[in-house]
Design goal:
Strand order of the largest sheet: 2-1-10-9-11-12-13
Radius of gyration: 24 Å
Oligomer: single chain
Length: 565
Amino acid sequence: MESKVRTVAELVAERWGDHRPGLWCEERTLTHHDMAAGAAARAALLADLVPPGAGNIGVLLDNTPEYPLWLSAAALARTAVAGVNPTRRGPELARDVLHTECRLLITERAYEPLLKDLELPGVIRLSTDSEEYEALLAPYADARPDPSRATPGDRLLLYFTSGSTGAPKAAICSQGRLAAAGRSLADQFGVRADDVHYVCMPMFHGNAVIADWAPALVAGAGVALRRRFSASGFLGDVRRYGATYFTYVGRAIQYVLATEEREDDRDNPLRTGFGTEAGAVDAAAFERRFGVRLVEGYGSSEGGAAVQWSPGTPAGAVGRAGPGLVVLDPETWAECPAAVFDAAGRLLNGDEAIGELVNRAPNPFEGYWRNPEAERERRRWGSPGSSEAGSGGGWYWTGDLFCRDADGFLYFAGRADDRIRVDGENLAAAMIENILARYEGADAVAVYAVPDPVTGDQVMAALAGTFDPLTFAEFLLAQPDLGTKMAPRFVRVVDRMPVTATNKIHRALLRREGLHCTDRVWWRPPGESTYRPLTGNDTEKLEGPLAPTRGPSEVRRQGLEPRTR
């Protein structure tokens, strides 16, 4: 095990002279040496275009070789890269670029229409598939990578947390933290120099860079890029490139499982998949079909808390709580009692056992770019209601709900916004989703709260797949771990689950639309066990004076401050 804190710049420079194939993308193959040389050329160009300390780089690209080349170049030049989300539009897109103080925006011609009418004063734009770009790089072709000036504390990544609203929240990741994360994952999964990491998640998101590209860079392994995630192209790519490892987030695994099954699906070189939110049902189905074990982990995008799976982890648990990780009541800051499960796996004391995961130990959270308010929300200490916060200290509040059993194993219960309160009882959306995912007709499931006309919430589920009201009602009655308050009052049947740019379910949109959507909604009247179509008259009676959206007042009523992710 290495004890020295490395820099990403050092890792890039170490590949100089390594003429093994190091990167594949579509029909293009580059050696590790090609990548190091290309990074050096771009670092030299960057130094001439943007003087050191004068600003950051924005990268608005699909997963092409230019993305890791510019990440590597930024490390050599001691500059930070802001990953720009291509699904953003207009003022929001401009705000992301300007907020992160980008002086150079690296893009491609396909995204030029998004930038056409944006006011980005002082920002140089370069399209990587243009003749101008090639001409600019040409004079630097003989540059060699020099990592000597880089330090572990140099900022390298500015990546926006998914689903952020209000003021931009760009989490900071230094060279030292990224290199350390890569080393930790390379050790955990035994990554070797002859491995190939398949990067199919978008590189503007932390998952692809931190959990896929960084461990490959540390181990000297190869990287195969998919321009954009494709479920139908997944297995073909894995075989074509000889991929042994990949990462995923959100619904990606569901999409792969939805492709046509073939007898030779297990004929593939994959060894491990690592990610979040696959769910126990889909993870088991993936292993049966492809012969590949998925390792579910938990890690906040900001690096403030992480939970690792280990042998002996109970079904449904993420892993054992490490030093400093506790589940606290967000109102009193008291530690929540241990979770108690019955023989069927039903959580018996969710109202008191579910709380927010907090890291009270020193942690690598490095803050947000130019957003002290968001930092105060994440890093707090003192006493309930205290606004104390600052760099270099404080407990890290994840904004995620968990419960912890008597043996110290942690169970994910959803985001703070996902807590549902029915008849005075707190329910965890993630736990209900795990149960509903067993329904034979369900391709994807999301559970969320809609306001109750009197007080608290009602449970609503969005279901993609085949829905039959009778068989669904029978299914619910047959689930031993479905509590009496957990059965959905409403079921929205969708053709395809709405997702964010990182394939996570767009829960904010589902909550916002509530019963007011264009999809068919079924409901179960109080005291009944069967579902019937929801009509406009039903909606008016159910909602009364309540608005269709759930605002901060409802969240605060549950003892939680509203959070964004």
